[in-house]
């Protein structure tokens, strides 16, 4: 997520978090998804794939490829992705619509298998993730300017550590915190943002 502090305003003077910029895709994502609580396992899996792909890149790079990822990764069906073979890896490595990084592709398949293991253990991936958050309710941070948004927290450290111990790939504390923002475990919208 970009960290500019200016607050761009659209012609109707709607105030948004500065990272939303003027790209309609980014604005739609900001207004309709970012910071909204997600309890649905399929959407949580989708963001697990997308955030892992995003490592080292800008979020808009992944957002613009989201539909390509949906096609490439079987509609984000965790069971299908977990069953991907080496032939699927080669198919994905030749897919210009996604980030063609073998470690990330293999990581996504590994993460799908581990996602299923967590569902078996906890009943759902959602129950597992939200169990880290007090009361299973979003943490509402008091963000006055985008520079107040942390890249990681003690909570993201703890979740990331647990997931890495379980074998998850591309889920360090910074990616974990971005995942928490994307799935509404934390709400980091500016206090005066229209999407808060």
Automatic annotation (TrEMBL):
Any one biological process term the GO annotation gives: base-excision repair
Keywords: DNA damage, DNA repair, Glycosidase, Hydrolase, Metal-binding, Zinc
Stored Gene3D superfamilies: Hypothetical protein, domain 2
General function of this protein: Hydrolysis of the deoxyribose N-glycosidic bond to excise 3-methyladenine from the damaged DNA polymer formed by alkylation lesions.
Pfam families in the record: Adenine_glyco
GO molecular function per UniProt: DNA-3-methyladenine glycosylase activity; metal ion binding
Binding site for Zn(2+): 17, 30, 189, 193
Name recorded for this polypeptide: DNA-3-methyladenine glycosylase I
UniProt EC number: 3.2.2.20
């Amino acid at each position: 997520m970009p960290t500019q502090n200016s607050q761009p305003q659209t012609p109707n003077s709607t105030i948004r978090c500065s990272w939303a910029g003027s790209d309609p895709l980014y604005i739609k994502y900001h207004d309709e998804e970012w910071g909204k609580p997600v309890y649905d396992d399929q959407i949580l899996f989708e963001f697990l794939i997308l955030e892992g792909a995003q490592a080292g890149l800008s979020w808009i790079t992944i957002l613009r490829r989201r539909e390509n990822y949906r096609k490439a990764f079987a509609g984000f069906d965790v069971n299908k992705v977990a069953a991907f073979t080496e032939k699927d890896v080669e198919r994905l490595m030749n897919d210009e619509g996604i980030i063609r990084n073998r470690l990330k592709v293999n990581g996504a398949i590994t993460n799908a298998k581990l996602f299923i293991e967590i569902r078996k253990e906890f009943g759902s991936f959602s129950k597992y993730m939200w169990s880290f958050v007090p009361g299973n309710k979003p943490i509402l941070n008091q963000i006055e300017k985008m520079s107040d948004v942390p890249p990681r927290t003690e909570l993201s450290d703890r979740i990331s550590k647990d997931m890495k111990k379980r074998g998850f790939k591309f889920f360090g504390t910074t990616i974990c915190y971005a995942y928490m923002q994307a799935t509404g475990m934390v709400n980091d919208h500016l206090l005066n943002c229209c999407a808060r």
